[in-house]
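Aim 2, interim progress: modelling of the calcium ion-bound target.
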Amino acid sequence: MIYAMKFGTLPAARRALGAALLSCALLGAAPGAMAPARADLTGSTVALESPQGLIGVGHTHVFRFKVTNASTDLNWIADLHFTFPACCTVAAMAWDGSEASNGDWWAFDQAGAGTSAAHYTDGDGELWGEIPGTGEYGWFEVTVDADAACPLGPAQIDWQLVGDGYGDEPHTLDGSLPITFDITAVRGATWTRVKGLY
Ligand SMILES: [Ca+2]
Ligand SMILES: [Ca+2]
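Predicted structure of the complex, ligand included:
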């Protein structure tokens, strides 16, 4: 059965957890005695770890995101989208498996350089996603050029998480992170535009 297929690729501890969840589901355990029988991504989060504060226009920034999967029964995250304001250009992308909670069985492909959107996709060729649920997390870093012409003030980074399709709908979760473009006193910055504001 599909559960066995999914757990068959996992370390023993994870197979045991999955087997326990499956037993509860099959036996119809009393409400409250087990994890909810859902595999959606409800409650998962994307946090912007850095940079904090104002985003200087006309500069390059490395946005570091922590993505946590709250799925209670194994809808693993397989795809992630980060869409920056149109005035931004993705210069480079990375993911940091060394600090992911599930470490060495992490792999993502990445695409989006030269556009304003970064897309990570499950990159190891097996069926299941890369960030398991129940609070496991991973890190993503997107290097972005913020054009000098970015409108100053509030903006946002939109994100979308996509599960591996396992379990119940919905398998996607959307959200946004507020940022603020500003002129910042970064070494080498021109102050011409700053003075023009006053
Ligand atoms: Ca994997
Ligand atoms: Ca995979």
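Strands lie at 45-50, 55-56, 59-69, 77-83, 88-95, 108-111, 117-122, 136-146, 153-163, 172-182. The first helix runs from residue 2 to 7.
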